[in-house]
Amino acid sequence: MTEPIDLWIEALRSGEYHQTRLALRDAEGFCCLGVACEVAIKAGLPLKQAGDDGYSVADSDIIHRAFLPQAVRAWLGLSTRNGQVSAFHSLSVLNDRERRDFGYIADFIDEHREELTSYRTPGETQ
């Protein structure tokens, strides 16, 4: 069975998603974390698009616009809501500030799986 993180990497490499910045999604496309939300929806997680730029978990009015909902984090096995791998590096930084393309980000995810699933923000508890 394919791991959820592999489905996400495959989706980022597929060319199916147009890239945008500073929101999970907008009229132009998706950030790398928004692609993760779309993959989660396709896999059957109780998640839906909400508002113009976010997602909400079924039966919730909370709209997540910039960071992954907890349900998607748990499904992917990520330890943080923005794909943090160190104090200064995260998937949201790669997408939004460094303006890396989805191919680069997919490779980064593949190469940093351990950090993505184990990094803890200083002071954060499990």
Topology:
Layout: H1 4-13, H2 32-42, E1 47-50, E2 54-57, H3 70-76, H4 91-97, H5 102-111, H6 113-118
Antiparallel strand pairs: 1-2
Helix pairs in contact: 1-2, 1-5
Descriptive account of the structure:
This protein is mainly alpha-helical. The protein has one domain (4-113). 40% of the residues lie in helices and 6% in strands. The protein has six helices and two strands, in the order ααββαααα. It has helices spanning 4-13, 32-42, 70-76, 91-97, 102-111, 113-118, and strands spanning 47-50, 54-57. The chain has a two-stranded antiparallel sheet. The longest helix is centred in the N-terminal third of the chain and has 11 residues, at 32-42. The protein is globular and about 30 Å long. The termini are far apart.
Number of helices: 6
Please give the domain count.
1
The average pLDDT score comes to: 93
Largest pleated sheet: 2 strands, antiparallel
Q: Give the DSSP E fraction (strand runs of 2 or more residues).
A: 5-15%
The succession of helices and strands, N to C, reads HHEEHHHH
As residue ranges, the low-confidence spans are none
Record field, number of beta strands: 2
Structural class determined from secondary elements? mainly alpha
State the helicity in percent bands. 40-55%
Amino-to-carboxy terminus distance: 27 Å
Integer-rounded radius of gyration: 13 Å
